[in-house]
Amino acid sequence: MALTKAAMAEKLFDDLGLNKREAKEMVDLFFEEIRIALEKGEQVKLSGFGNFDLRSKNQRPGRNPKTGEEIPISARRVVTFRPGQKLRARVEAYAGTVEQ
Amino acid sequence: MTKSELIEAIALKQTQLTQKDIDSAVKTLLEHMAHSLSNGERIEIRGFGSFSLHHRPPRTGRNPKTGDAVKLPEKYVPHFKPGKELRDRVNGTGNGSK
Prior knowledge:
The structure holds 2 protein chains of 2 kinds. By secondary structure, chain A is an alpha+beta fold. Chain A has helices at about 5-15, 20-40, 85-90, and strands spanning about 45, 50-55, 60-65, 70-75, 75-85. Chain A starts with a helix and ends in an 8-residue tail after the last helix. The relative contact order of chain A is 0.12. Chain B is an alpha+beta fold. Chain B has 3 helices and 5 strands; from the N terminus they run ααβββββα. Chain B has helices at about 5-15, 20-40, 85-90, and strands at about 45, 50-55, 60, 70, 75-80. A 3-stranded antiparallel β-sheet of chain B has the order 1-2-5. In chain B, strands 3-4 form a two-stranded antiparallel sheet. In chain B, strand 3 and strand 4 form a beta hairpin. Chain B is elongated. Chain B starts with a helix and ends in an 8-residue tail after the last helix.
């Protein structure tokens, strides 16, 4: 089972005693404030977890994979995530099978 | 934006919780996410994106100083795929509220 916002809110309820409404609002605001910063063109750095960076891409040639028709991929700004040292080290240590 | 700026931004948007509560909540959320990933569990947040692990097969690397070959074991690395809403908003093609 993947981790979802519902399970994250449940955790705030269990560990910190936020009520259900506060917990849900907290989780929503957490992701929304990160989106707002990125939307404004601001990098987001969460120490111990990782950085959300922005990259500007130039227009490049592309193809419709169904029809093979050539169509340009327009210039755009994209988000990339760069995991921090601490998260990398924790994940690297994982030896089991990955849930797909 | 740093973690403490994120905590301040959240505090400005709501009135129920103290800054201290929000500080604990943000740290709890990040730890919950890191914990899930380090146990091989995906994270799926609608409108934001999903985090998963990508496998890296074992390879032979080199010590850049000595040039010696070093066997590097297989490993997993965290991967983030932005969701549609985040992609659109960052690219200025979203409507901002949805």
